[in-house]
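Order emerges. For instance:

***
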Amino acid sequence: MATKAVSRRATAAPAAGVRYRVECADLHAHLFAVTLTIDAPAALQRVTLPVWIPGSYLVREFAKNLQGLRATQGRRKPTLTQVDKCSWLVDCAPGQPLVLHYQVCAYDNSVRTAWLDAERGFFNGTSLCLRVEGQTDAPHALDIVAPSLAADGAAWSCATALVPTKVDKQGFGSYQASGYDELADSPVEMGAFWSAEFDACGVPHRFVIAGAAASFDGDRLIADTKAICEAEMRFWHGDKAGKRGGPKLPIDRYVFMLNAVDDGYGGLEHRHSTALICNRRDLPQRGEKKKQAEGYTTLMGLISHEYFHTWNVKRMRPAEFAHYDYSRENYTQLLWFFEGFTSYYDDLLLRRAGRIDDGAYLRLLNKTINQVQQTPGRLVQPVANASFDAWVKYYRQDEQTPNSTVSYYTKGALVALCFDLTLRHEGKGSLDDVMRHLWTHSGGGPISEADIAAALEAVSGRSYAQELARWVHSTEELPLSQLLRTHGVATLEDPSQQAQVLGLRVAEANGSVQVKVVLRGGAAEKAGFSANDEWIGIELPAVGKKKSAQAWRIAKLDDLPLYLGDTTKFTAIVARDRKLLRLPLTMPTGVTTWRLFTHDAAKVTGWLAG
Protein backbone atom coordinates (compact mmCIF):
# COMPACT_ATOMS: atom_id res chain seq x y z
CA MET A 1 0.00 0.00 0.00
CA ALA A 2 1.43 3.36 -1.00
CA THR A 3 2.10 5.58 1.97
CA LYS A 4 1.60 8.94 0.36
CA ALA A 5 -0.59 11.84 1.34
CA VAL A 6 -3.95 12.31 -0.35
CA SER A 7 -3.43 15.00 -2.96
CA ARG A 8 -6.13 17.65 -2.88
CA ARG A 9 -6.11 20.59 -5.24
CA ALA A 10 -5.70 23.87 -3.39
CA THR A 11 -8.66 26.16 -3.94
CA ALA A 12 -8.81 29.92 -4.07
CA ALA A 13 -9.62 31.18 -0.60
CA PRO A 14 -12.57 33.53 -0.13
CA ALA A 15 -11.78 36.80 1.57
CA ALA A 16 -11.36 35.66 5.18
CA GLY A 17 -12.22 38.20 7.79
CA VAL A 18 -10.87 35.96 10.57
CA ARG A 19 -7.38 34.50 10.21
CA TYR A 20 -5.38 32.24 12.54
CA ARG A 21 -1.67 31.48 12.38
CA VAL A 22 -0.60 28.48 14.48
CA GLU A 23 3.09 27.92 15.24
CA CYS A 24 4.93 25.40 17.39
CA ALA A 25 6.46 27.96 19.74
CA ASP A 26 8.32 25.50 21.99
CA LEU A 27 8.15 21.75 21.46
CA HIS A 28 9.73 20.95 24.82
CA ALA A 29 7.51 23.37 26.73
CA HIS A 30 4.45 22.03 24.84
CA LEU A 31 3.48 25.53 23.68
CA PHE A 32 1.57 26.51 20.57
CA ALA A 33 1.67 30.18 19.59
CA VAL A 34 -1.47 31.56 17.96
CA THR A 35 -1.89 34.84 16.11
CA LEU A 36 -5.51 35.81 15.41
CA THR A 37 -6.17 38.63 12.95
CA ILE A 38 -9.66 40.15 12.74
CA ASP A 39 -9.88 42.39 9.68
CA ALA A 40 -12.99 44.31 10.74
CA PRO A 41 -13.44 44.09 14.52
CA ALA A 42 -16.38 45.54 16.41
CA ALA A 43 -15.77 48.68 18.47
CA LEU A 44 -15.95 46.52 21.58
CA GLN A 45 -14.91 43.12 20.21
CA ARG A 46 -15.70 40.02 22.28
CA VAL A 47 -13.66 36.86 21.86
CA THR A 48 -14.26 33.55 23.64
CA LEU A 49 -12.72 30.11 23.89
CA PRO A 50 -15.12 27.12 24.00
CA VAL A 51 -15.55 25.28 27.29
CA TRP A 52 -16.39 21.94 25.60
CA ILE A 53 -15.96 20.12 22.32
CA PRO A 54 -19.00 18.63 20.53
CA GLY A 55 -19.13 14.87 20.86
CA SER A 56 -17.57 14.86 24.34
CA TYR A 57 -20.15 16.01 26.84
CA LEU A 58 -18.10 17.55 29.62
CA VAL A 59 -17.14 21.14 30.38
CA ARG A 60 -13.36 20.91 30.04
CA GLU A 61 -12.43 24.59 30.50
CA PHE A 62 -10.02 24.87 27.58
CA ALA A 63 -9.21 28.44 28.60
CA LYS A 64 -7.17 27.08 31.52
CA ASN A 65 -4.42 26.34 28.97
CA LEU A 66 -4.40 29.80 27.36
CA GLN A 67 -1.73 32.27 28.46
CA GLY A 68 -0.09 35.57 27.50
CA LEU A 69 -3.08 37.06 25.65
CA ARG A 70 -2.32 40.52 24.25
CA ALA A 71 -3.83 42.77 21.57
CA THR A 72 -2.44 45.21 19.00
CA GLN A 73 -3.97 47.53 16.38
CA GLY A 74 -1.12 48.93 14.37
CA ARG A 75 1.02 50.79 16.89
CA ARG A 76 -1.86 50.94 19.36
CA LYS A 77 -2.32 48.50 22.21
CA PRO A 78 -6.06 48.41 22.89
CA THR A 79 -7.43 47.67 26.33
CA LEU A 80 -8.18 43.99 26.80
CA THR A 81 -10.54 43.00 29.67
CA GLN A 82 -11.41 39.50 30.80
CA VAL A 83 -15.12 39.32 31.60
CA ASP A 84 -15.47 35.69 32.65
CA LYS A 85 -13.56 32.39 32.65
CA CYS A 86 -13.44 32.13 28.85
CA SER A 87 -14.32 35.56 27.41
CA TRP A 88 -12.46 38.81 26.76
CA LEU A 89 -13.49 42.27 25.50
CA VAL A 90 -11.12 44.34 23.35
CA ASP A 91 -11.65 48.12 23.07
CA CYS A 92 -10.96 48.62 19.36
CA ALA A 93 -10.49 51.61 17.07
CA PRO A 94 -12.80 51.42 14.03
CA GLY A 95 -11.41 50.63 10.58
CA GLN A 96 -8.22 48.87 11.66
CA PRO A 97 -7.44 45.13 11.82
CA LEU A 98 -7.15 43.74 15.34
CA VAL A 99 -4.35 41.26 16.08
CA LEU A 100 -4.41 38.99 19.12
CA HIS A 101 -1.35 37.03 20.25
CA TYR A 102 -1.41 34.20 22.78
CA GLN A 103 0.00 30.79 23.65
CA VAL A 104 -1.70 27.51 24.49
CA CYS A 105 -0.13 24.81 26.64
CA ALA A 106 -0.80 21.51 24.85
CA TYR A 107 -0.26 18.55 27.14
CA ASP A 108 -3.38 16.40 26.81
CA ASN A 109 -2.55 13.29 24.78
CA SER A 110 -6.19 12.54 24.02
CA VAL A 111 -8.55 13.14 21.09
CA ARG A 112 -10.34 16.03 22.82
CA THR A 113 -7.83 18.82 23.35
CA ALA A 114 -4.27 19.50 22.15
CA TRP A 115 -0.80 17.95 22.37
CA LEU A 116 2.67 19.12 21.40
CA ASP A 117 6.12 17.68 21.98
CA ALA A 118 9.20 16.88 19.92
CA GLU A 119 7.51 13.78 18.46
CA ARG A 120 4.04 14.95 17.56
CA GLY A 121 1.56 17.80 17.44
CA PHE A 122 -2.24 17.64 17.51
CA PHE A 123 -5.02 20.11 18.17
CA ASN A 124 -8.73 20.72 17.91
CA GLY A 125 -9.86 24.23 17.02
CA THR A 126 -11.87 24.41 20.24
CA SER A 127 -8.61 24.31 22.19
CA LEU A 128 -6.57 26.83 20.17
CA CYS A 129 -8.88 29.13 18.25
CA LEU A 130 -10.61 32.00 20.00
CA ARG A 131 -14.14 32.52 18.73
CA VAL A 132 -14.79 35.99 17.30
CA GLU A 133 -18.29 36.88 18.42
CA GLY A 134 -20.42 38.38 15.67
CA GLN A 135 -18.27 36.87 12.91
CA THR A 136 -18.60 33.13 13.49
CA ASP A 137 -20.33 32.59 10.13
CA ALA A 138 -17.71 34.55 8.16
CA PRO A 139 -14.96 32.69 6.26
CA HIS A 140 -12.09 31.61 8.53
CA ALA A 141 -8.52 30.95 7.44
CA LEU A 142 -5.96 28.78 9.22
CA ASP A 143 -2.23 28.98 8.53
CA ILE A 144 -0.24 26.08 10.04
CA VAL A 145 3.51 26.65 10.28
CA ALA A 146 5.95 23.74 10.23
CA PRO A 147 8.18 23.50 13.32
CA SER A 148 11.84 24.38 12.89
CA LEU A 149 12.96 21.47 15.05
CA ALA A 150 11.70 17.89 15.26
CA ALA A 151 12.97 14.81 17.07
CA ASP A 152 15.96 13.19 15.35
CA GLY A 153 15.60 15.64 12.51
CA ALA A 154 12.57 13.69 11.18
CA ALA A 155 10.52 15.60 8.62
CA TRP A 156 7.06 16.46 9.88
CA SER A 157 3.89 16.40 7.80
CA CYS A 158 0.47 17.89 8.48
CA ALA A 159 -2.97 16.30 8.04
CA THR A 160 -6.43 17.81 8.36
CA ALA A 161 -9.76 17.58 6.55
CA LEU A 162 -9.88 21.36 6.05
CA VAL A 163 -9.75 22.51 2.43
CA PRO A 164 -6.24 23.72 1.49
CA THR A 165 -5.65 27.02 -0.24
CA LYS A 166 -1.85 27.04 -0.39
CA VAL A 167 0.13 24.18 1.17
CA ASP A 168 3.49 22.55 0.64
CA LYS A 169 4.16 18.87 -0.05
CA GLN A 170 4.13 18.10 3.67
CA GLY A 171 0.70 19.71 4.13
CA PHE A 172 1.82 22.82 6.00
CA GLY A 173 0.39 26.13 4.85
CA SER A 174 -3.02 27.77 4.51
CA TYR A 175 -6.46 26.20 4.86
CA GLN A 176 -9.97 27.59 4.77
CA ALA A 177 -13.19 26.99 6.68
CA SER A 178 -16.68 28.27 5.94
CA GLY A 179 -17.03 29.48 9.52
CA TYR A 180 -16.03 28.80 13.10
CA ASP A 181 -18.08 25.59 13.35
CA GLU A 182 -16.13 23.96 10.49
CA LEU A 183 -12.83 25.19 11.88
CA ALA A 184 -13.66 23.81 15.34
CA ASP A 185 -14.75 20.52 13.79
CA SER A 186 -11.49 19.88 11.89
CA PRO A 187 -8.63 18.55 14.04
CA VAL A 188 -5.03 18.81 12.87
CA GLU A 189 -2.34 16.11 13.15
CA MET A 190 1.36 16.92 12.77
CA GLY A 191 4.48 14.79 12.94
CA ALA A 192 6.48 12.09 11.17
CA PHE A 193 3.37 9.93 10.91
CA TRP A 194 2.56 6.94 8.71
CA SER A 195 0.10 7.85 5.95
CA ALA A 196 -1.88 6.01 3.28
CA GLU A 197 -4.80 6.77 1.02
CA PHE A 198 -7.70 4.81 -0.42
CA ASP A 199 -11.02 5.39 -2.15
CA ALA A 200 -14.32 4.21 -0.67
CA CYS A 201 -17.25 4.37 -3.10
CA GLY A 202 -15.29 6.92 -5.08
CA VAL A 203 -14.58 9.21 -2.10
CA PRO A 204 -10.89 9.86 -1.27
CA HIS A 205 -9.92 8.80 2.24
CA ARG A 206 -6.66 9.19 4.12
CA PHE A 207 -5.42 7.28 7.18
CA VAL A 208 -2.56 8.74 9.25
CA ILE A 209 -1.06 7.01 12.28
CA ALA A 210 1.33 8.37 14.89
CA GLY A 211 3.26 5.99 17.13
CA ALA A 212 2.87 2.72 15.21
CA ALA A 213 5.51 0.04 15.80
CA ALA A 214 7.68 -1.26 12.96
CA SER A 215 5.70 -4.52 12.83
CA PHE A 216 2.47 -2.71 11.96
CA ASP A 217 0.59 -4.13 8.94
CA GLY A 218 -0.71 -1.06 7.11
CA ASP A 219 -2.01 -3.00 4.12
CA ARG A 220 -4.38 -5.01 6.29
CA LEU A 221 -5.64 -1.97 8.18
CA ILE A 222 -6.40 -0.08 4.98
CA ALA A 223 -8.16 -3.06 3.39
CA ASP A 224 -10.33 -3.56 6.47
CA THR A 225 -11.09 0.15 6.87
CA LYS A 226 -12.06 0.45 3.20
CA ALA A 227 -14.47 -2.49 3.60
CA ILE A 228 -16.02 -0.89 6.70
CA CYS A 229 -16.43 2.51 5.02
CA GLU A 230 -18.04 1.02 1.92
CA ALA A 231 -20.41 -1.13 4.02
CA GLU A 232 -21.56 1.98 5.88
CA MET A 233 -21.97 4.04 2.72
CA ARG A 234 -24.11 1.27 1.26
CA PHE A 235 -26.07 1.03 4.50
CA TRP A 236 -27.13 4.67 4.25
CA HIS A 237 -27.32 5.10 0.47
CA GLY A 238 -27.81 1.67 -1.07
CA ASP A 239 -25.76 -0.38 -3.50
CA LYS A 240 -25.48 2.54 -5.93
CA ALA A 241 -23.48 4.61 -3.43
CA GLY A 242 -20.57 6.22 -5.27
CA LYS A 243 -21.74 5.02 -8.69
CA ARG A 244 -22.74 7.17 -11.62
CA GLY A 245 -26.40 8.11 -11.23
CA GLY A 246 -26.36 7.02 -7.59
CA PRO A 247 -27.34 9.12 -4.58
CA LYS A 248 -25.23 12.09 -3.56
CA LEU A 249 -22.92 11.24 -0.67
CA PRO A 250 -22.58 13.67 2.26
CA ILE A 251 -18.76 13.65 2.16
CA ASP A 252 -16.24 14.38 -0.59
CA ARG A 253 -13.19 13.59 1.59
CA TYR A 254 -12.40 11.94 4.90
CA VAL A 255 -9.35 11.65 7.17
CA PHE A 256 -8.72 9.09 9.93
CA MET A 257 -6.16 10.29 12.51
CA LEU A 258 -4.97 7.55 14.86
CA ASN A 259 -2.61 8.02 17.80
CA ALA A 260 -1.12 4.65 18.79
CA VAL A 261 0.01 4.68 22.43
CA ASP A 262 1.06 2.14 25.05
CA ASP A 263 -2.32 2.24 26.80
CA GLY A 264 -5.33 4.13 25.53
CA TYR A 265 -8.64 3.84 23.69
CA GLY A 266 -11.24 6.23 22.33
CA GLY A 267 -12.42 8.36 19.47
CA LEU A 268 -14.10 11.63 18.61
CA GLU A 269 -16.17 12.12 15.49
CA HIS A 270 -16.06 15.05 13.08
CA ARG A 271 -17.88 15.88 9.83
CA HIS A 272 -15.01 14.95 7.51
CA SER A 273 -12.62 13.19 9.87
CA THR A 274 -12.18 11.41 13.14
CA ALA A 275 -9.50 11.42 15.83
CA LEU A 276 -8.75 7.99 17.33
CA ILE A 277 -6.47 6.63 20.03
CA CYS A 278 -5.62 2.98 20.61
CA ASN A 279 -3.14 0.62 22.20
CA ARG A 280 -0.40 0.13 19.61
CA ARG A 281 -0.45 -3.61 20.35
CA ASP A 282 -3.99 -3.65 18.92
CA LEU A 283 -2.83 -2.59 15.47
CA PRO A 284 -2.59 -5.52 13.01
CA GLN A 285 0.89 -7.02 12.87
CA ARG A 286 2.68 -8.38 9.85
CA GLY A 287 2.95 -12.16 9.96
CA GLU A 288 0.16 -12.37 12.54
CA LYS A 289 -1.63 -15.69 12.82
CA LYS A 290 -4.82 -16.08 10.84
CA LYS A 291 -6.93 -15.84 13.98
CA GLN A 292 -7.85 -12.22 14.54
CA ALA A 293 -6.68 -10.65 17.78
CA GLU A 294 -9.44 -9.40 20.09
CA GLY A 295 -7.77 -6.00 20.39
CA TYR A 296 -7.79 -5.50 16.63
CA THR A 297 -11.49 -6.39 16.48
CA THR A 298 -12.09 -3.72 19.12
CA LEU A 299 -10.12 -1.21 17.05
CA MET A 300 -12.17 -2.00 13.94
CA GLY A 301 -15.31 -1.51 16.02
CA LEU A 302 -14.02 1.92 17.02
CA ILE A 303 -13.33 2.82 13.38
CA SER A 304 -16.80 1.62 12.43
CA HIS A 305 -18.41 3.58 15.30
CA GLU A 306 -16.78 6.92 14.53
CA TYR A 307 -17.36 6.59 10.79
CA PHE A 308 -21.08 5.83 11.34
CA HIS A 309 -21.24 9.16 13.19
CA THR A 310 -20.57 10.85 9.82
CA TRP A 311 -24.31 10.41 9.31
CA ASN A 312 -25.68 9.81 12.79
CA VAL A 313 -24.77 12.83 14.97
CA LYS A 314 -22.56 14.98 12.73
CA ARG A 315 -25.34 15.61 10.22
CA MET A 316 -28.50 13.98 11.48
CA ARG A 317 -28.28 15.18 15.08
CA PRO A 318 -30.43 16.19 18.07
CA ALA A 319 -32.61 19.24 17.40
CA GLU A 320 -31.02 20.79 20.49
CA PHE A 321 -27.66 20.64 18.69
CA ALA A 322 -28.82 22.48 15.56
CA HIS A 323 -26.60 25.33 16.77
CA TYR A 324 -23.92 24.70 19.38
CA ASP A 325 -23.49 26.96 22.37
CA TYR A 326 -19.76 26.62 23.09
CA SER A 327 -19.98 28.53 26.36
CA ARG A 328 -21.97 26.02 28.42
CA GLU A 329 -23.53 22.56 28.55
CA ASN A 330 -25.83 21.63 25.65
CA TYR A 331 -28.50 19.22 26.89
CA THR A 332 -30.37 16.49 25.01
CA GLN A 333 -32.18 13.29 25.97
CA LEU A 334 -31.30 11.66 22.66
CA LEU A 335 -27.79 10.30 23.20
CA TRP A 336 -29.37 6.85 23.65
CA PHE A 337 -30.21 7.14 19.96
CA PHE A 338 -27.18 8.94 18.54
CA GLU A 339 -24.54 7.11 20.58
CA GLY A 340 -26.49 3.99 21.47
CA PHE A 341 -27.80 3.18 17.99
CA THR A 342 -24.34 3.92 16.59
CA SER A 343 -22.98 1.42 19.14
CA TYR A 344 -25.46 -1.16 17.87
CA TYR A 345 -24.46 -0.71 14.26
CA ASP A 346 -20.68 -0.44 14.74
CA ASP A 347 -20.19 -4.17 15.37
CA LEU A 348 -23.13 -5.23 13.18
CA LEU A 349 -21.56 -3.48 10.21
CA LEU A 350 -18.24 -5.21 10.91
CA ARG A 351 -20.18 -8.42 10.32
CA ARG A 352 -21.79 -7.10 7.13
CA ALA A 353 -18.42 -5.88 5.89
CA GLY A 354 -17.07 -9.43 6.31
CA ARG A 355 -14.55 -8.47 9.00
CA ILE A 356 -16.08 -10.81 11.63
CA ASP A 357 -18.38 -13.83 11.44
CA ASP A 358 -21.69 -14.59 13.17
CA GLY A 359 -20.03 -16.17 16.18
CA ALA A 360 -17.70 -13.24 16.75
CA TYR A 361 -20.60 -10.81 16.49
CA LEU A 362 -22.64 -12.72 19.06
CA ARG A 363 -19.69 -12.70 21.45
CA LEU A 364 -19.49 -8.91 21.15
CA LEU A 365 -23.25 -8.62 21.70
CA ASN A 366 -23.01 -10.98 24.67
CA LYS A 367 -20.40 -8.70 26.25
CA THR A 368 -22.64 -5.64 25.84
CA ILE A 369 -25.62 -7.44 27.39
CA ASN A 370 -23.61 -8.51 30.43
CA GLN A 371 -22.19 -5.01 30.88
CA VAL A 372 -25.72 -3.64 31.15
CA GLN A 373 -27.06 -6.52 33.25
CA GLN A 374 -24.22 -6.04 35.72
CA THR A 375 -24.95 -2.33 36.18
CA PRO A 376 -27.44 -1.70 39.03
CA GLY A 377 -27.96 1.84 37.75
CA ARG A 378 -30.08 0.47 34.89
CA LEU A 379 -32.84 -0.02 37.50
CA VAL A 380 -32.38 3.51 38.85
CA GLN A 381 -32.22 5.87 35.87
CA PRO A 382 -33.93 5.62 32.45
CA VAL A 383 -31.54 5.78 29.53
CA ALA A 384 -33.09 9.05 28.28
CA ASN A 385 -32.30 10.67 31.63
CA ALA A 386 -28.81 9.19 31.57
CA SER A 387 -28.32 11.02 28.27
CA PHE A 388 -29.44 14.33 29.75
CA ASP A 389 -27.15 13.82 32.75
CA ALA A 390 -24.08 12.90 30.66
CA TRP A 391 -22.43 16.17 31.69
CA VAL A 392 -22.46 15.30 35.38
CA LYS A 393 -22.66 11.51 35.45
CA TYR A 394 -21.23 9.62 32.46
CA TYR A 395 -18.33 12.03 31.98
CA ARG A 396 -17.70 12.46 35.72
CA GLN A 397 -17.65 8.85 36.80
CA ASP A 398 -16.88 7.91 40.38
CA GLU A 399 -17.40 5.01 42.77
CA GLN A 400 -21.20 5.36 42.67
CA THR A 401 -21.69 5.81 38.93
CA PRO A 402 -22.61 2.15 38.20
CA ASN A 403 -25.17 2.33 41.02
CA SER A 404 -26.88 5.53 39.90
CA THR A 405 -26.90 5.58 36.11
CA VAL A 406 -26.51 3.45 32.99
CA SER A 407 -24.39 3.97 29.88
CA TYR A 408 -26.42 5.39 26.99
CA TYR A 409 -23.87 3.66 24.73
CA THR A 410 -24.51 0.11 25.91
CA LYS A 411 -28.14 0.42 27.04
CA GLY A 412 -28.88 2.45 23.90
CA ALA A 413 -27.35 -0.31 21.77
CA LEU A 414 -29.66 -2.86 23.40
CA VAL A 415 -32.67 -0.58 22.84
CA ALA A 416 -31.70 -0.50 19.15
CA LEU A 417 -31.42 -4.30 19.19
CA CYS A 418 -34.94 -4.57 20.63
CA PHE A 419 -36.41 -2.25 18.01
CA ASP A 420 -34.60 -4.08 15.20
CA LEU A 421 -35.64 -7.57 16.29
CA THR A 422 -39.23 -6.49 16.97
CA LEU A 423 -39.58 -4.92 13.53
CA ARG A 424 -38.09 -7.97 11.86
CA HIS A 425 -40.23 -10.39 13.88
CA GLU A 426 -43.40 -8.54 12.91
CA GLY A 427 -42.32 -8.63 9.26
CA LYS A 428 -42.55 -4.88 8.80
CA GLY A 429 -39.05 -3.93 7.79
CA SER A 430 -36.09 -3.39 10.08
CA LEU A 431 -34.24 -0.73 12.01
CA ASP A 432 -32.13 -0.22 8.87
CA ASP A 433 -35.26 1.07 7.16
CA VAL A 434 -36.01 3.37 10.10
CA MET A 435 -32.53 4.89 9.99
CA ARG A 436 -32.71 5.51 6.25
CA HIS A 437 -36.23 6.96 6.60
CA LEU A 438 -34.95 9.39 9.22
CA TRP A 439 -32.02 10.39 7.01
CA THR A 440 -34.22 11.01 3.97
CA HIS A 441 -37.02 12.85 5.76
CA SER A 442 -34.72 15.03 7.87
CA GLY A 443 -32.58 15.94 4.91
CA GLY A 444 -29.64 14.76 6.97
CA GLY A 445 -30.39 17.45 9.55
CA PRO A 446 -31.64 17.90 13.14
CA ILE A 447 -34.30 15.50 14.47
CA SER A 448 -36.34 15.05 17.65
CA GLU A 449 -37.72 12.01 19.46
CA ALA A 450 -41.04 12.70 17.75
CA ASP A 451 -39.26 12.21 14.42
CA ILE A 452 -37.87 8.87 15.62
CA ALA A 453 -41.35 7.77 16.71
CA ALA A 454 -42.79 8.84 13.37
CA ALA A 455 -40.15 6.90 11.46
CA LEU A 456 -40.83 3.76 13.48
CA GLU A 457 -44.53 4.08 12.72
CA ALA A 458 -43.96 4.84 9.04
CA VAL A 459 -41.88 1.68 8.61
CA SER A 460 -43.93 -0.65 10.81
CA GLY A 461 -47.47 0.63 10.27
CA ARG A 462 -48.09 0.92 14.02
CA SER A 463 -47.20 3.16 16.94
CA TYR A 464 -44.14 2.39 19.02
CA ALA A 465 -45.10 4.82 21.77
CA GLN A 466 -45.41 2.05 24.38
CA GLU A 467 -41.99 0.61 23.56
CA LEU A 468 -40.40 4.07 23.70
CA ALA A 469 -41.99 4.66 27.08
CA ARG A 470 -40.90 1.29 28.49
CA TRP A 471 -37.45 0.91 26.92
CA VAL A 472 -36.26 4.52 26.86
CA HIS A 473 -38.17 6.44 29.54
CA SER A 474 -38.48 3.83 32.28
CA THR A 475 -36.22 1.40 34.09
CA GLU A 476 -38.17 -1.65 32.92
CA GLU A 477 -35.98 -4.56 31.84
CA LEU A 478 -35.63 -5.04 28.10
CA PRO A 479 -37.19 -8.19 26.54
CA LEU A 480 -33.83 -9.37 25.25
CA SER A 481 -34.14 -13.12 25.75
CA GLN A 482 -37.52 -13.42 24.04
CA LEU A 483 -36.53 -11.30 21.04
CA LEU A 484 -33.18 -13.04 20.55
CA ARG A 485 -34.86 -16.44 20.56
CA THR A 486 -37.17 -15.39 17.72
CA HIS A 487 -34.04 -14.77 15.65
CA GLY A 488 -32.21 -18.00 16.38
CA VAL A 489 -30.24 -17.00 19.49
CA ALA A 490 -30.81 -18.68 22.84
CA THR A 491 -29.42 -17.72 26.23
CA LEU A 492 -27.81 -19.75 28.99
CA GLU A 493 -27.02 -18.57 32.49
CA ASP A 494 -23.49 -19.45 33.56
CA PRO A 495 -21.98 -18.90 37.02
CA SER A 496 -20.51 -15.43 37.31
CA GLN A 497 -16.92 -14.54 38.12
CA GLN A 498 -16.06 -13.98 41.78
CA ALA A 499 -16.20 -10.17 41.61
CA GLN A 500 -19.68 -10.19 40.09
CA VAL A 501 -20.91 -12.81 42.58
CA LEU A 502 -19.84 -10.57 45.44
CA GLY A 503 -21.02 -7.34 43.84
CA LEU A 504 -17.58 -5.78 43.41
CA ARG A 505 -15.37 -4.19 40.80
CA VAL A 506 -11.73 -4.49 41.74
CA ALA A 507 -8.21 -3.89 40.49
CA GLU A 508 -5.74 -6.71 41.06
CA ALA A 509 -2.07 -5.86 40.78
CA ASN A 510 1.16 -6.58 42.64
CA GLY A 511 -0.51 -9.07 44.96
CA SER A 512 -3.16 -6.61 46.08
CA VAL A 513 -6.96 -6.50 45.66
CA GLN A 514 -8.16 -2.89 45.54
CA VAL A 515 -11.91 -2.31 45.71
CA LYS A 516 -12.99 0.21 43.07
CA VAL A 517 -16.77 -0.09 43.13
CA VAL A 518 -19.24 -1.71 45.52
CA LEU A 519 -22.37 -2.58 43.53
CA ARG A 520 -25.80 -1.79 44.94
CA GLY A 521 -27.59 -4.71 46.60
CA GLY A 522 -24.64 -7.09 46.46
CA ALA A 523 -23.15 -9.26 49.19
CA ALA A 524 -20.14 -6.97 49.58
CA GLU A 525 -22.33 -3.93 50.21
CA LYS A 526 -24.32 -5.86 52.83
CA ALA A 527 -21.06 -6.87 54.53
CA GLY A 528 -19.88 -3.26 54.74
CA PHE A 529 -17.28 -3.04 51.98
CA SER A 530 -16.46 0.43 50.69
CA ALA A 531 -14.79 1.72 47.57
CA ASN A 532 -11.01 2.19 48.06
CA ASP A 533 -10.78 -0.65 50.59
CA GLU A 534 -7.83 -3.00 50.21
CA TRP A 535 -8.97 -6.59 50.63
CA ILE A 536 -6.08 -8.28 52.41
CA GLY A 537 -7.28 -11.72 53.46
CA ILE A 538 -9.98 -13.99 54.82
CA GLU A 539 -10.68 -15.88 58.06
CA LEU A 540 -12.54 -19.18 58.06
CA PRO A 541 -14.30 -20.36 61.20
CA ALA A 542 -13.48 -23.67 62.87
CA VAL A 543 -15.91 -26.40 61.80
CA GLY A 544 -16.11 -29.62 63.75
CA LYS A 545 -13.85 -30.88 66.51
CA LYS A 546 -10.93 -31.78 64.24
CA LYS A 547 -10.78 -28.50 62.36
CA SER A 548 -9.29 -25.22 63.47
CA ALA A 549 -9.90 -21.69 62.26
CA GLN A 550 -7.81 -20.65 59.28
CA ALA A 551 -6.69 -17.32 57.86
CA TRP A 552 -5.34 -16.67 54.37
CA ARG A 553 -3.94 -13.71 52.52
CA ILE A 554 -5.46 -13.29 49.05
CA ALA A 555 -3.82 -11.78 45.98
CA LYS A 556 -6.78 -12.12 43.63
CA LEU A 557 -10.45 -12.97 43.98
CA ASP A 558 -10.04 -16.17 41.98
CA ASP A 559 -8.16 -17.48 45.04
CA LEU A 560 -11.37 -17.60 47.07
CA PRO A 561 -12.68 -21.01 45.89
CA LEU A 562 -9.26 -22.52 46.68
CA TYR A 563 -9.33 -21.38 50.30
CA LEU A 564 -13.07 -21.51 51.01
CA GLY A 565 -13.87 -24.98 49.75
CA ASP A 566 -17.50 -25.60 50.77
CA THR A 567 -17.52 -22.76 53.29
CA THR A 568 -19.98 -19.97 52.43
CA LYS A 569 -19.68 -17.82 55.57
CA PHE A 570 -16.34 -16.23 56.43
CA THR A 571 -14.72 -12.98 57.49
CA ALA A 572 -13.03 -10.59 55.08
CA ILE A 573 -10.06 -8.62 56.39
CA VAL A 574 -9.78 -5.21 54.74
CA ALA A 575 -7.67 -2.12 55.26
CA ARG A 576 -9.48 1.23 55.19
CA ASP A 577 -7.48 4.39 55.78
CA ARG A 578 -4.72 2.20 57.33
CA LYS A 579 -7.19 0.66 59.80
CA LEU A 580 -7.86 -3.11 59.66
CA LEU A 581 -11.51 -4.15 59.62
CA ARG A 582 -13.15 -7.56 59.87
CA LEU A 583 -16.29 -7.81 57.72
CA PRO A 584 -18.62 -10.84 57.98
CA LEU A 585 -19.38 -12.05 54.46
CA THR A 586 -21.70 -14.69 53.05
CA MET A 587 -20.90 -16.00 49.57
CA PRO A 588 -24.10 -15.79 47.48
CA THR A 589 -25.35 -18.53 45.19
CA GLY A 590 -27.26 -18.30 41.95
CA VAL A 591 -25.50 -15.20 40.56
CA THR A 592 -25.27 -15.82 36.83
CA THR A 593 -23.97 -14.30 33.61
CA TRP A 594 -25.63 -14.56 30.22
CA ARG A 595 -24.11 -16.68 27.47
CA LEU A 596 -25.58 -16.48 23.97
CA PHE A 597 -25.53 -19.43 21.62
CA THR A 598 -26.97 -20.15 18.20
CA HIS A 599 -29.88 -22.56 18.02
CA ASP A 600 -31.00 -21.65 14.48
CA ALA A 601 -28.06 -20.58 12.33
CA ALA A 602 -30.21 -19.64 9.32
CA LYS A 603 -32.24 -17.17 11.36
CA VAL A 604 -29.12 -15.65 12.87
CA THR A 605 -27.48 -15.18 9.49
CA GLY A 606 -30.69 -13.75 8.05
CA TRP A 607 -30.76 -11.08 10.76
CA LEU A 608 -27.06 -10.25 10.77
CA ALA A 609 -26.71 -10.13 7.00
CA GLY A 610 -29.40 -7.46 6.87
